[in-house]
Amino acid sequence: TGEIARMDLGLYKYEIWRTFNGFYWTANNIMSKSVRREALGFGLKGFALKIMDKLTGAFPYYKYFTRKYYPAPRDEKFEELGKKYYGKIDIEVLKHKIMTGYPVCDEASTDVKAADTQLIENNSIWVFWGNTRGMVWNTSLLKDNLAGVRDVPPAGWTLLCGLPEKHDVTFSSSSTNEAKQEGKVVWSYDFAGDFEGRNSWHADLAYANGTIVGAGSNGVVYALDAKTGNKIWSKKINSFDEKTWVNTGNDIVVVGWENETCALDVKDGNILWRNNNARLISSKPVFTDDLVIIGSREGRVFAIDIDSGDTLWQTDFGLSNVYVSYDKNNKKVIVTAGGHCYSLYPNNGSIYWDFIADGFIEAPLEIVENTIYFGSSDTNIYAIDSTNGKLRWKQKTGWWIATTPTFDNGIIFVASMDHHLYAMNAENGEKLWSFNCWAAIHSSPVVYGNYVFFGCDDGRFYALNKTNGDLAWCFAPGYTINDDIYNYITTAIVSNVIANEGMVFFSANGMIYGLDAQTFETSSKASVEKKTSAIYPSPIYISIALAIIIILTILYLYLRKK
């Protein structure tokens, strides 16, 4: 309907405000006269604190306790920011511009919840555990009353989705064995410096010809030598405290963020072009032969000329958070938006087919030959035919899936919010094995050599044997969740993973890490076949050789007889 509402609720009294054109907030300061009277009585505490504040200026919070409503500092800030961003407020503006404003978030803030219409319709909500301004919650004054209480660093935003009705799942063949080896750090690069809130900072990563490119939470893009971690160049791009997306292709680095999409020279970081039309970016750029395809949180897909940066076409789906992939086999742009998966013609962005899932999709998808794999908030992993958009199979997990599956040798690996990494038969979705972590997984798995790699919200980076799910090694860059009461303190690893040339890369805790993968990628199928054909001649050559030998033998016997 477009209507929004605010409600003050007491035990016996309540009041509701509604509007089609405006904004509301709530900040622990009751506005309703009747509810305020029920909750605070005559407001004697507030009256006393008000007098003390007039005398000393030390009790500005008296406004929360008076019989009459007075706007508290938080109310005033909400009003200010609401007017500033009016007409532009969406979930990302709410998370990163409004809920980080002081004193909306102050020294005593320990968590934030945020939602929009689509999330509420799906029983979902964004949650930030810790302080959104990056301050560590100092608990020193609470230690006398709360034995064992610890300071709480910010853990970052996470999306919580409600389970479908009558959802039931059985966990089996779950591996939790101890690591046989330890993670070996080859190098690490610190981009957070002395920032107090570094625990929730990470970088989006890409790889190009021996260079790791990382777009940090500080809005800076870094190019690092993949072998040593030495900085090659850096470029400040994003002035907005929100995700910066990056990818590489054709010797350029494409960066998308709140205000624009731009291209940098991978060698020196110089800006090659800017596109101010492709903005409010929500996912990694994708490269085709001559295009850069990128999606926005306003439901738009942009096709940009890779050389000039000009927008060639755009398609509007009217939905939030568009994620883009490219189907090389069928030469189609594959887009997920809301609960839809679309196949688009790359020349004009028109729709070829449309598949509708039972939940909404919050990650790019994996394309293998003629099959597309993706996860959904309905807990299912889907496999659909890329040629016509028809469902091949779907398999449920314990909770929603916010990661991109990965494929290797007939197996699809899926990371779920239910703490499990699954290995499934790519042909029919049969579960082969699963690995149980201590928390949800927001980091998409990557297969390299003998292992499948991924990060987890429990603070660990895992390397599993891809054939049976046994834990080979793990590494923790900061706080970890263990079998104790401190499961609210963690350094969640949510970045993407890159593996190349015997190393594996990820980002967490304001750092970019290069680790020894402790495995190597085996020879490709083509090279193996080529090597085999050199050792074992094909049947046709053997037949020709035998025929020549027989003919020469007959000729020899004939001449000898004469």
Would you give an account of this structure?
This protein is α+β, with helices and mostly antiparallel strands. Among the domains are: 1-89, no CATH class; 525-561. Helices cover 14% and strands 35% of the residues. It contains seven helices and 39 strands. The strands form ten sheets. The chain has a five-stranded mixed beta sheet, with no helix packed on it. Strand 14 (252-256) and strand 15 form a beta hairpin. The longest helix is centred in the C-terminal third of the chain and has 23 residues, at 539-561. Residues 524-542 have low confidence and may be disordered.
Low-pLDDT regions: 524-542
Read across the widest sheet, the strand sequence of neighbours is 6-32-31-30-29
Give the CA-based shape: globular
Number of helices: 7
Secondary-structure-derived class: alpha+beta
User: CA-to-CA gap between the ends?
Assistant: 106 Å
Q: What is the β-strand count?
A: 39
β-sheet strand percentage = 25-35%
Q: If you average the pLDDT, what whole number results?
A: 89
What Rg, in angstroms, do the CA atoms define? Answer: 29 Å
What is this structure's SSE topology?
Blueprint: E1 4-9, E2 14-19, H1 33-40, H2 44-56, H3 73-84, H4 91-98, E3 111-114, H5 117-121, E4 124-129, E5 157-161, E6 174-175, E7 181-182, E8 185-190, E9 203-208, E10 211-216, E11 220-225, E12 231-236, E13 245-249, E14 252-256, E15 261-265, E16 271-275, E17 286-287, E18 291-295, E19 300-305, E20 311-316, E21 322-327, E22 332-337, E23 340-344, E24 351-356, E25 366-368, E26 371-375, E27 380-385, E28 391-396, E29 406-408, E30 411-415, E31 420-425, E32 431-436, E33 446-448, E34 451-455, E35 461-465, E36 471-475, E37 498-500, E38 503-508, E39 511-516, H6 525-535, H7 539-561
Parallel strand pairs: 6-32, 7-36
Antiparallel strand pairs: 1-2, 3-4, 4-5, 8-39, 9-10, 10-11, 11-12, 13-14, 14-15, 15-16, 17-18, 18-19, 19-20, 21-22, 22-23, 23-24, 25-26, 26-27, 27-28, 29-30, 30-31, 31-32, 33-34, 34-35, 35-36, 37-38, 38-39
